[in-house]
Amino acid sequence: MAKKVLITDTILRDAHQSQAATRMTMDQMLPALDALDEIGYYSLEAWGGATFDSCLRFLNEDPWERLKTLKSHLKNTPIQMLLRGQNLLGYKHYSDDVVEKFVEYSIKNGVKVIRVFDALNDVRNLETAMKAIKKYGGICEATICYTTSPVHTNEYFVKLAKELEDKGADNICIKDMANLLLPYTAYELVSAMKKVLKPETKIHLHTHNTTGTGDMVNLKAVEAGCDIVDTALSALGNGTANPATEAFVATLAGTEYDTGIDLTKLVPITNHFKGVATELEKSGSLNPNVRKVDVNTLIYQVPGGMLSNLMNQLKQQGKLDKLDEVLAEVPNVRKDCGYPPLVTPSSQIVGTQAVLNVISGERYKMVTKEFKGLLKGEYGKLPAEPDAEVVKKVVGDDKIITCRPADLIEPEYEKYKAEIAEYYTKEEDVLSYALFNEVAINYFKWRLANKKAVDKDLADGKDNVYPV
User: Fold this and answer.
1) Does residue 92 contact residue 119 with C-beta atoms inside 8 Å?
2) For 94-132, what is each residue's pLDDT tens digit?
3) Which residues lie closer than 8 Å to 438 by C-beta, 6 or more apart?
4) How many domains does the chain divide into?
5) What does pTM read for this prediction?
6) Residue 65: domain span
């Protein structure tokens, strides 16, 4: 029986997040939206991740207005977003009422598929978001952050997939953000998952092509029964982004896995985004090096973005000659803190601590508050027990958090709403502010100044008139 493989294209989100610092504007997307809607994708990943922050911080766009515009053009194709569980799209844990409200308004404004993940694979950090996705009629794509370590076996991931399905997941995503998943491992993992998951639960694979293995990983996963695969149109595909859509569509054409996508319809869309890529390159957002194959990830098990971050930190200290020592220290630090997957925020926390251990000359002589927080349980349960001596040295007598971190957070939504009373125009503003306080306020000021042609900093806050 023919098994059509479904495609999610990431051109509107992960492709430019991975290659161009999430700087694609709504105006650059608009000319291609109607054509994208006619392709026959399973979904278009177009929101969430870093797009929300980038809209407010760099592009002077309201992310909620972007979502509404996307929805007005994408009438046939579900819009997909990436959500960091209890972290939403920010960098800390939020209260349950904020998480539920965010999911409600995301779905209300046009999102259909929500891929929800937690950096530590702590299921407790996904539960509130998952319940809300189901409550408001979204498709819940619960996610496994793939990594390698003595505890991260295929058995571990299969058990996790089953637990997520039991909690209401419609799809299970294998998120290989660092491009560490190898082709034959992918085949074994998908095969094992298929044996325990319900037939109606779809497996969705997300990998990158940083190391040049992405296409092979996708192909072996499909042969094992993977239902949906993430790809990115070639204008911004490959390299640190996802494998190219066109190559994968052509590979499966005429086989039992044929995607049903017409390659010729992709050509004009790709040509449009080639122009966008050129614009992003000229503006300095896109460095051509991100398109090259980088095998360091395979050798050091360090994601590409983390490697460049480590190099920058050492450069600032004038210690770039210590890179090899730091790369050797990263797996040691990761082992000491219970093998967290190297994805935001744990990649930054582990990497910075490895740098400190090397340049200070003594391990854990200097520690960041984030590293201490990771060991204390502020981010959730670590995949394995951290090293007892390291915990003693770093945490000392501080209390270890064993509950779900968000259980310690009081409801916050009404407090945030009161804080932005003078800028409030809609409920979504409260959510923008909850996630990116100062950045959102700066955007609200810009919006108000443009709307009223009044510089809010000069205007009288009460009467909105200029002081004389």
Assistant:
1) no
2) 999 999 999 999 999 999 999 999 999 999 999 999 999
3) none
4) 2
5) 0.93
6) 6-288
